[in-house]
Amino acid sequence: MMTSTLTISHLTKTFGGVDALSDVSLHVARGERVALLGHNGAGKSTLMKVILGLITADSGQISVCGAAPGDAGARSQVAYLPENATFHSALTGLEQITYYMRLRGEAPSGAMALLDKVGLAHAAKQRIGTYSKGMRQRVGLAQALIGHPNLLVLDEPTSGLDPVSRRDFYELLDGLAAEGAGILLSSHALTEVEARTDRLLILSGGRMVATGSLPELRQDAALPVTMQITTLNGYAGDILAALPNAIRVGDHLHLSCAQADKLVTLAQVAALKDKVVDIEVMPPSLEDIYSHFSRRDGQ
Ligand SMILES: Nc1ncnc2c1ncn2[C@@H]1O[C@H](COP(=O)(O)OP(=O)(O)OP(=O)(O)O)[C@@H](O)[C@H]1O
């Protein structure tokens, strides 16, 4: 059975008439990497603040590693990395982590090991002011890892990072998840979270409108499949006549159909094989799926 590091049931939070969170339920299991998606104002930050115990919900239940949010038991097991973590630029990475380990009552001798874990051992004695954005994110992650947290809450951890730094950052997260940490991260980078997390949660207008792996969301959304047909020169007109639902898009023809009709439609195109050079089946993109769910409530 999966052990839950975070369980939220029917959470509601209102700010002066604005429903920031409405009946939100979710869980994050041990070792699970979960992405929280949503437009600006969807409620992601509010949800994170409630998990961290910075604000209290109006109603609903929440268990953070078996404790109430904000309790000493929860605080000792949860780490938070804000979107733009800032540090004193004159401190070295080692001084920064040593200082925070002391504040947490941890032996500061472990600071170098933490910096090594996030790939910063080589720059440990350099001032943070000289670090790149990717290196600063790693300092933030090292700081978040003080005390071996069981749940990591990361607010857009890769925004502003270049593709290589992003990949490296996700590799670090993979290692932490493999050691058993549950990870909840917010992001606007759909392609990236599709590849690097186990499950997606989509918030829209304070409501949880979709949860699941990408294949599950794709199935739930039941969006049409598009076929891109490359025709033999001069035969596009014949094919348009044979397939009345096809449309011209650039040099190709596009034909959309329901998932359930995919094979029948493919057979119709295959029957025109003397006039077709190639056919490519394009499933709905993550952007299509995201838009489908996040606009559901008329947003
Ligand atoms: N302290 C507050 N007082 C009043 N309204 C608030 C407060 N905090 C959040 N809200 C409102 O609650 C809703 C959700 O905001 P929240 O910041 O959680 O969204 P978000 O998904 O984190 O957005 P973003 O991606 O822009 O960070 C918004 O309508 C916001 O205006």
UniProtKB/TrEMBL annotation:
Keyword annotations from UniProtKB, A to Z: ATP-binding, Nucleotide-binding, Plasmid, Transport
All copies of domain ABC transporter, residue ranges: 6-230
Highest taxon of source: Bacteria
GO molecular function, one term: ATP binding
Coiled-coil portions: none
Pfam families listed in its UniProt record: ABC_tran
Gene3D superfamilies in the cross-refs: P-loop containing nucleotide triphosphate hydrolases
Designated name of the protein: ABC transporter, ATP-binding protein
Native source organism of the sequence: Phaeobacter inhibens
Upper taxonomic lineage: Bacteria, Pseudomonadati, Pseudomonadota, Alphaproteobacteria, Rhodobacterales
